[in-house]
Write a structure and sequence with these properties.
GO molecular function: methenyltetrahydrofolate cyclohydrolase activity; methylenetetrahydrofolate dehydrogenase (NADP+) activity
GO cellular component, one term: cytosol
Mean pLDDT: 97
Distance between the termini: 55 Å
CATH architecture of the largest domain: 3-Layer(aba) Sandwich
Bound molecules: 5,10-Methenyltetrahydrofolate
Low-confidence stretches: none
Number of strands: 11
Protein name: Bifunctional protein FolD
CATH superfamily of the largest domain: NAD(P)-binding Rossmann-like Domain
Shape: globular
Pathway: One-carbon metabolism; tetrahydrofolate interconversion
EC number: 1.5.1.5, 3.5.4.9
CATH class of the largest domain: Alpha Beta
Number of domains: 2
Number of helices: 10
Order of helices and strands: EHEHEHEHHHEHEHEEEEHEH
Length: 285
């Protein structure tokens, strides 16, 4: 049996249609949702992602502003721009594309963003709020994964979930969200002894390692839900995930592809957070 494919493009299209309606209603009442994106340096992958984000905004009727800085930009200039955007009531979301050049202190840049406009959910205060179950912007990639699971009615209460990867932007918030939804969560990483022991008992396996085709079919429990968060560019220019799709799909029950899986959902959740932020700001006036 081969797994069913969880199509992130199709789910994104549906959700983005709903977001476009919300954005249009807000615009009609005088608050067009607006996302500001800051890109430092010329990393080609970052440029592609930022282009996808700006195009996604456009299509949903969300205004986007793009600010580009050279690789050797001064952190003070970028922090000055963030301060300006924080103070601008017409801007509802601020995203600083990561990774930043090495001479930047990533943490201090993320911390400079107003938590009301932190649509990435990377600010330490938003992370803390999320961990305590308070209202917060949820990081887009793990939030997109949760939406994918919800769309398929994957039952999480009591489920065994295994997350491979412990990054601040995917692994850790993913584990928090799955825990909050009632799953029993195991977070694996490069120091994990006998990784296969863990992955083979997962009802839900989330791969966020950053290594192409790392998760193979023999690591998957028959019928499991396999979520591939990886975006790796192969030498031939093709995109591939952290999961060896060909072998894993023969074992899994449900699997996300790359491209066309979690990636588009990440952008959809960014648009959702931006609309949400605009809605909150419209309610205040
Ligand atoms: N502050 C910040 N926020 C982010 O959300 C953020 C970031 N920095 N830095 C980099 C990662 C990566 N990321 C992706 C978003 C969409 C796709 C995406 O749309 N992928 C398409 C294919 C795109 C392609 O062809 O390259 C797909 O999987 O189908 C991929 C990756 C957001 N990130």
């Amino acid at each position: 049996m081969t797994a069913r494919i969880l199509d992130g493009n199709a789910l994104s299209a549906k959700l983005r249609g709903e977001l476009a309606e919300k954005a249009a209603a807000l615009t009609a009442r005088g608050t067009q949702p607006c996302l500001a994106v800051i890109l430092v340096g010329g990393d080609p992958a970052s440029a592609v992602y930022v282009r996808n984000k700006v195009a996604g905004c456009e299509k949903a009727g969300i205004k986007s502003l793009k600010f580009e800085y050279p690789q050797d930009a001064s952190p003070a200039d970028v922090l000055g721009k963030i301060a300006e955007l924080n103070a601008d009531p017409a801007v509802h979301g601020i995203l600083v594309q990561l990774p930043l050049p090495k001479h930047f202190d990533e943490k201090s840049v993320l911390e400079a963003i107003s938590i009301q406009k932190d649509v990435d959910g990377f600010h330490a205060e938003n992370v803390g709020r999320l961990s305590q179950g308070q209202e917060a912007f949820v990081p887009c990639t793990p939030n997109g994964v949760m939406e994918m699971l919800k769309s398929e009615n994957v039952s999480l209460r009591g489920a065994e979930a295994v997350v491979i990867g412990r990054s601040n932007i995917v692994g850790k918030p993913m584990a928090m969200l799955l825990t909050a939804a009632g799953a029993t969560v195991t977070v694996c990483h490069s120091g994990t002894r006998d990784l296969n022991f863990h992955t083979r008992r997962a009802d839900i396996l989330v791969a966020a390692i950053g290594k192409p085709k790392f998760v193979t079919g023999d690591m998957v429990m028959p019928g499991a839900v396999v979520i591939d968060v990886g975006i790796n560019r192969l030498p031939d220019g093709k995109l591939c995930g952290d999961v060896d799709f060909e072998s894993a799909k023969e074992v899994a029950g449900l699997i996300t592809p790359v491209p066309g899986g979690v990636g588009p959902m990440t952008i959809t959740m960014l648009l959702a957070n931006t609309v949400e932020s605009a809605q909150r700001s419209a309610q205040k006036t």
